[in-house]
Amino acid sequence: MTPLDLDANATEPLRPEARDALLRALATGGNPSSVHGGGRAARRILEEARRAVAGRFGGEVVFTSGGTEANALALHALSPGRRVLLGATEHAAVRAAAPQGASALPVHGDGTLDLAALEAALRGGPPALVCAMAANNETGVLHPLAEVAALCRSHGALLHVDAVQAARLSAELPGNTLALSGHKLGGPPGAGALVLRGGLALTPLIPGGGQEQGRRGGTEALPAIAGLAAALLAPYDAPRLASLRDAVEAALGEGVVIAGKDAPRLPNTVLAVLPGVAAETVVIALDLAGVRVSAGAACSSGKVARSHVLEAMGFGEDAGSGIRLSLPWNAPDDAPERFRRAWEGVRARLSSRRPALAT
Ligand SMILES: Cc1ncc(COP(=O)(O)O)c(C=O)c1O
């Protein structure tokens, strides 16, 4: 039996619409910068993809190699001369790109940004750049972005939104800039985008041959970009995923804490904290039982990593005990039942070591 994929937040399976668009762009070939007919055909595909992304979010679109580069470009271009304030649960792509001296803003126990702390930080001082992710990749928790944006506006701050995990939600996403990633939408890896609103000037992170109106050097990865746009436009059945997600949560049973359960969340994501259990043990045991999930935090060299997201949410000792279950766009109807069967076996083995997990 094929393994059950519950790791969509790592990468979504390729959508057929994206595969078709990718193959069409590959077949067309050509470099969008060439002036001959082949180049013009490639440019048409590129500009069509740009219009698709701009049509969804407004503003101008700079294509990048992925979400990490889109976030790095935003920080590179917008942070000079500004204080950088970032949520404590931001992705490593944002944290690592932030300049030294950037301040981390606390989140509440449910993972949402502490607006009072944001307002206090914004008051006084030089103009700020605030980085707030739309949806957290570990918990799926959605920040109150409308309120964050209003506070930024009233204090003259710029807002950068890492929308990598939330770009398919219908809710309007505020922000002067938005970072997107193709493979998190069901497009191929290799393309992302930075959306710029309000005519912001942008110094390139990667200088080069003037591509992307001088904002990002390097020949555009046309097949991946065409796939990104097609994946963004493909239908996403959030209510169906939310009901599968609820059933997966119910299958987890007693003794498991769902991080951010009462906050608004992505429809497909559960971060299950198993107090006293190392997440990697569970990830490996579930893999052997045919279910693919992730530890909330990545591990390195076999060491149990602690999740900075769970730490910021106050999980303390249990910050290394989160497993993330994230349903892909094409999750089968029997995903909760298949998960339940695998989980029962894993849980039985764990509970011999940790009785609180016994049902
Ligand atoms: C919230 C968030 N931001 C940024 C990234 C980086 O995106 P990419 O893999 O396209 O570089 C990820 C990937 O895990 C993510 O989840």
From TrEMBL:
- Is rRNA-binding among the key words of this record? no
Name all Aminotransferase class V domain ranges: 6-327
Transmembrane segments in this chain: where? Answer: none
Q: Which Gene3D superfamilies match?
A: 1.10.260.50, Aspartate Aminotransferase, domain 1, Type I PLP-dependent aspartate aminotransferase-like (Major domain)
Kindly indicate whether the keyword Iron-sulfur belongs to this entry. Answer: yes
Q: Which cofactor does it need?
A: pyridoxal 5'-phosphate
Q: Which reaction does it catalyse?
A: (sulfur carrier)-H + L-cysteine = (sulfur carrier)-SH + L-alanine
Molecular function in Gene Ontology: transaminase activity
Signal peptide limits: none
Q: So which domain of life are we looking at?
A: Bacteria
What family classification does the UniProt entry report for this protein?
Belongs to the class-V pyridoxal-phosphate-dependent aminotransferase family. NifS/IscS subfamily.
Q: What does this protein do?
A: Catalyzes the removal of elemental sulfur atoms from cysteine to produce alanine. Seems to participate in the biosynthesis of the nitrogenase metalloclusters by providing the inorganic sulfur required for the Fe-S core formation.
Q: What is this protein called?
A: Cysteine desulfurase
Name its species.
Answer: Sabulicella glaciei
